[in-house]
């Protein structure tokens, strides 16, 4: 039976990239009747230093972001990683299955560890094994993510295959990454060659889910573009990363295809298209930020949701971990 799993790090604010690449698609997939499990990956977050009070606040804010984006904590399972110990327990086993070389090849490791890898945390290197455990401890079959997580999901498949081979079993499923839609890689508003990221030093490069209407409109007005009008077909965007990014964002927000957006706006100058995009973005995002504010005002309610979600998650994860221990030869 199909089961969806995905996770987001509570390591800072949510961006439009997180919304279009992940949250909005989670809400859409949940309504297709598949069981969905969504996780605030607080143990991944601490692979780089997090202030404890900030981590608590960001975990609650992220939970509010899921709910405000349309993920229903009754239909889906919504919880934080550290409350289901089975993730860490399976991750240890995967640490012993995965090879050092696999980890050192990951582009996220190379980016985040920087030049002085000797000073990076051991957890940062092992990050993808914990991610594989997140997914496989539920025998999840489908993992909706943005483009930047593709390499990690390939490693998850490699870990599942090697475990099955090493132990001569057909136990862990080989997971399908689901990277679909117009906005699987939302780019910086200042530089069409960089992805939109919460860690970019320029706040003008991104739209935060907590931005107010004026800020959203201003950031879109000031977004970098070229001087040409919009083309009359999608191929006309191939060499125009900034223009393509704005069209992709429009398409994803409006639930249209890129071709439909082009058909509607062909020949328009950015002086016309940007205000239309700003209106659309404000209309879609403002209700989310309002709802996030409302929800975070009651942290006890959010904590209760995460606790209930964790109990439901453990009901699935616990027998899968027990079976794994048996396969590996741990005496119970
Ligand atoms: P994270 O927290 O960096 O991002 C969460 C999700 O948002 C997507 N995303 C984007 N999509 C489109 N355009 C962008 N600019 C953009 N920026 C971020 C990411 O692709 C992701 O889907 N390692 C993961 C968290 C994780 C996970 C997992 C995901 C841990 N365990 C198991 C799936 C399954 C991460 O750091 O995502």
From TrEMBL:
<feature type="binding site">
    <location>
        <position position="186"/>
    </location>
    <ligand>
        <name>ATP</name>
    </ligand>
</feature>
<feature type="binding site">
    <location>
        <begin position="17"/>
        <end position="18"/>
    </location>
    <ligand>
        <name>ATP</name>
    </ligand>
</feature>
<comment type="subunit">
    <text>Homodimer.</text>
</comment>
<keyword id="KW-0436">Ligase</keyword>
<feature type="short sequence motif" description="'KMSKS' region">
    <location>
        <begin position="195"/>
        <end position="199"/>
    </location>
</feature>
<comment type="function">
    <text>Catalyzes the attachment of tryptophan to tRNA(Trp).</text>
</comment>
<dbReference type="GO" id="GO:0006436">
    <property type="term" value="P:tryptophanyl-tRNA aminoacylation"/>
</dbReference>
<dbReference type="GO" id="GO:0005524">
    <property type="term" value="F:ATP binding"/>
</dbReference>
<dbReference type="InterPro" id="IPR014729">
    <property type="entry name" value="Rossmann-like_a/b/a_fold"/>
</dbReference>
<dbReference type="InterPro" id="IPR002305">
    <property type="entry name" value="aa-tRNA-synth_Ic"/>
</dbReference>
<dbReference type="InterPro" id="IPR024109">
    <property type="entry name" value="Trp-tRNA-ligase_bac-type"/>
</dbReference>
<comment type="similarity">
    <text>Belongs to the class-I aminoacyl-tRNA synthetase family.</text>
</comment>
<dbReference type="GO" id="GO:0004830">
    <property type="term" value="F:tryptophan-tRNA ligase activity"/>
</dbReference>
<feature type="short sequence motif" description="'HIGH' region">
    <location>
        <begin position="10"/>
        <end position="18"/>
    </location>
</feature>
<feature type="binding site">
    <location>
        <begin position="146"/>
        <end position="148"/>
    </location>
    <ligand>
        <name>ATP</name>
    </ligand>
</feature>
<dbReference type="InterPro" id="IPR001412">
    <property type="entry name" value="aa-tRNA-synth_I_CS"/>
</dbReference>
<dbReference type="GO" id="GO:0005829">
    <property type="term" value="C:cytosol"/>
</dbReference>
<protein>
    <recommendedName>
        <fullName>Tryptophan--tRNA ligase</fullName>
        <ecNumber>6.1.1.2</ecNumber>
    </recommendedName>
</protein>
<keyword id="KW-0963">Cytoplasm</keyword>
<dbReference type="InterPro" id="IPR002306">
    <property type="entry name" value="Trp-tRNA-ligase"/>
</dbReference>
<keyword id="KW-0648">Protein biosynthesis</keyword>
<feature type="binding site">
    <location>
        <begin position="9"/>
        <end position="11"/>
    </location>
    <ligand>
        <name>ATP</name>
    </ligand>
</feature>
<feature type="binding site">
    <location>
        <begin position="195"/>
        <end position="199"/>
    </location>
    <ligand>
        <name>ATP</name>
    </ligand>
</feature>
<feature type="binding site">
    <location>
        <position position="134"/>
    </location>
    <ligand>
        <name>L-tryptophan</name>
    </ligand>
</feature>
<dbReference type="InterPro" id="IPR050203">
    <property type="entry name" value="Trp-tRNA_synthetase"/>
</dbReference>
<dbReference type="Pfam" id="PF00579">
    <property type="entry name" value="tRNA-synt_1b"/>
</dbReference>
<keyword id="KW-0030">Aminoacyl-tRNA synthetase</keyword>
<keyword id="KW-0067">ATP-binding</keyword>
<keyword id="KW-0547">Nucleotide-binding</keyword>
């Amino acid at each position: 039976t199909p089961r969806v799993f995905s996770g987001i790090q509570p390591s800072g604010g949510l961006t439009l990239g997180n919304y279009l690449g992940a949250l909005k698609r989670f809400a859409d997939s949940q309504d297709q009747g598949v069981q969905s499990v969504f996780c605030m990956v607080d143990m991944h977050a601490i692979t780089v230093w997090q202030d404890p009070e900030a981590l608590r606040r960001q975990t609650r804010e992220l939970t509010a972001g899921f709910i405000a984006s349309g993920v229903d904590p009754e239909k889906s399972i919504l919880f934080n990683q550290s409350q289901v110990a089975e993730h860490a327990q399976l991750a240890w086993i995967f640490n012993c299955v995965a090879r050092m070389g696999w980890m050192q090849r990951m582009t996220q490791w190379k980016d985040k560890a920087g030049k002085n890898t000797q000073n990076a945390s051991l957890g940062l290197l092992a990050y993808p094994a914990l991610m594989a455990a997140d997914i496989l401890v539920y025998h999840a079959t489908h993992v909706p993510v943005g483009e930047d997580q593709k390499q990690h999901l390939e490693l998850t498949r490699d870990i599942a295959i090697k475990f099955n081979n090493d132990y001569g079993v057909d136990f862990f499923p080989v997971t399908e990454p689901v990277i679909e839609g117009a906005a699987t890689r939302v780019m910086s508003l200042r530089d069409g060659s960089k992805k939109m990221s919460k860690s970019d030093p320029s706040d003008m490069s991104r739209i935060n889910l907590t931005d107010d209407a004026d800020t959203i409109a201003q950031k879109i007005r000031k977004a970098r573009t070229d001087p040409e009008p919009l083309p009359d077909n999608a191929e006309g965007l191939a060499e125009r990363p900034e223009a393509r990014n704005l069209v992709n964002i429009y398409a994803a927000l409006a639930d249209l295809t890129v071709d439909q957006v082009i058909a509607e706006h062909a020949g328009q100058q950015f002086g016309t298209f940007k205000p239309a995009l700003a209106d659309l973005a404000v209309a879609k995002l403002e209700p989310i930020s309002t709802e996030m504010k409302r929800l975070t005002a009651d942290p006890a309610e959010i904590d209760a949701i995460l606790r209930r979600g964790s109990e439901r998650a453990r009901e699935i994860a616990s027998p899968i971990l027990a079976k794994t221990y048996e396969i590996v030869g741990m005496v119970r």
